[in-house]
Specification:
7 strands; binds iron/sulfur cluster; two-stranded antiparallel sheet; 7% strand; 3-stranded antiparallel β-sheet
Length: 247
């Protein structure tokens, strides 16, 4: 049910963003400037990727790519706080620790400017848009209301998967490769890149419950509208708000 709930959250966000007439993304197939190694995911998203890899006979190539990427990871690879830890600190007016310098290296799952995991790409990849064509000199421009709505959605996904792995995409995938379901991927990584799964497990954080949202006054109506769409969506006849609240 958690996987279906996560899928419903992402689908509802996408439907809401399609109704936002002021959003005019310049993103096109083949754009890959935002495909760097700074993507964060929940364990649920990581599991969906690993299942897709196994079901589509991509296991060996994927495991070698992931193992090599893990061997190249810096000692601190993900943000210093999860999205909900960050929100909790801001709402409590506490300092938030600095994040490490973002990596500019391309995502290893990019091939010929296209994502090889496209059907199961993480929410952080799905939500990223820019109203200008971005490149090394032109950073992405993301409308504030959209960024706030996407951040709320990231927080909901973390809340849904609280206590499970949360962190940098490759670390979460590596950490999950030890599960029996993904044993073949784990075996290849352990064989070719011994010790990297353990290191990945040391680098990931755990998802935290939702402490509240960070929504600005000027964007409140739009973001609340998006949240209402998510809360009122249903999975097997049950409202997402109830599912997120464990009811
Ligand atoms: S997973 Fe796919 S969409 Fe996400 S950063 Fe990597 S190549 Fe880009």
């Amino acid at each position: 049910m958690k996987g279906k709930t996560a899928a419903a959250i992402m689908k509802t966000f996408a439907e809401w963003s399609n109704t936002c007439k002021e959003l005019k993304p310049a993103c096109r197939s083949g754009c890959d400037t935002c495909c760097t190694r700074n993507i964060t995911v929940t364990a649920l998203e990581g599991e969906a990727i690993l299942r897709y890899v196994q079901e589509n006979d991509l296991t060996a190539e994927f495991a070698l790519t992931l193992g090599k990427t893990l061997s190249e990871q810096p000692a601190i690879s993900g943000p210093a706080s999860t999205a909900n830890e960050f929100a909790d600190a801001c709402l409590g007016e506490r300092d938030v620790p600095d994040d490490p310098e973002p990596s500019t290296a391309p995502c290893p799952f990019l091939q010929d400017n296209l994502c090889t995991l496209y059907p199961v790409r993480p929410f952080a990849c799905r939500m990223f848009i820019s109203s200008v064509v971005c490149n090394g000199k032109q950073p992405a421009i993301v409308p504030d209301f959209y960024f706030e709505a996407a951040t709320c959605t990231i927080q909901l996904l973390e809340h849904l998967d609280q206590k499970e792995y949360w962190g940098n995409l490759y670390d979460v995938l590596g950490a999950l490769a030890e599960l029996r379901e993904f044993r073949r991927i784990g075996e290849i990584i352990n064989d070719q890149y011994p010790g990297e799964i353990r290191k990945a497990q040391m680098r990931v954080r755990a998802g935290k419950p939702l402490p509240g949202f960070l929504i600005s006054e000027e964007n409140n109506d739009k973001v609340q509208g998006m949240l209402d769409s998510i809360f009122n969506a249903t999975v097997e006849g049950r409202r997402l708000e109830d599912l997120l609240n464990g009811r």
